[in-house]
Write a structure and sequence with these properties.
Strand content: 15-25%
Oligomer: single chain
Structural class: alpha+beta
Number of helices: 6
Number of domains: 1
Length: 159
């Protein structure tokens, strides 16, 4: 991923500093575009996960060497739990959206059923505006959701 100067500095900081920036990002007090260049949803979600967990789940080299959709295999959304449309999603969880079995978008949960993301239309087009999934997704009888006239699944990554 391509980090800004600030993003690189924070990525190399100590745990407490990373936590401070992660919290600011999750609660809308900072914009992910100040940390990560390119407006790629997967990169934005991975960067916040890195700040929250440090080297425990994502090595610094992996953070820099993995770009865009290559994060999909690392997030491994398909093996995570599926959101039921009711339960609160733990803040900081990476959330993936799939259509036809293919993950097409990633976001970060910020509490309740709200997420932050970039470049995802109604599923998060601007980091500074949290999206409430309970309001934008319509639950269907098959356990998924109807969104944009298609069946959609919401996956919670363990990364």
């Amino acid at each position: 991923m391509q980090l800004t100067q600030l993003g690189g500095h924070v990525a190399q900081s100590g745990f407490a500093e990373k936590q401070k920036h992660a919290q600011a990002l999750m609660y809308g007090m900072a914009d992910i575009n100040e940390y990560v260049s390119g407006g790629v949803c997967y990169d934005a979600a991975a960067y916040v996960r890195y700040l929250l967990r440090g080297d425990a789940m994502i090595a610094p080299g992996t953070l820099l060497d993995t770009i865009g959709q290559h994060w999909r295999t690392r997030f491994n959304f398909e093996t995570g739990d599926q959101w039921d449309g009711r339960a609160s999603i733990p803040a900081g969880t990476a959330v993936g959206f799939s259509r036809g079995g293919n993950v097409f978008h990633a976001a970060i949960a910020v509490g309740g059923s709200r997420i932050r993301a970039v470049n995802g239309g109604r599923l998060g087009s601007g980091w500074m505006y949290a999206v409430d999934l309970a309001r934008v997704l319509e639950q269907d009888a098959a356990g998924g959701f109807t969104f944009d006239r298609a069946n959609l699944r919401v996956h919670l990554s363990r990364l």
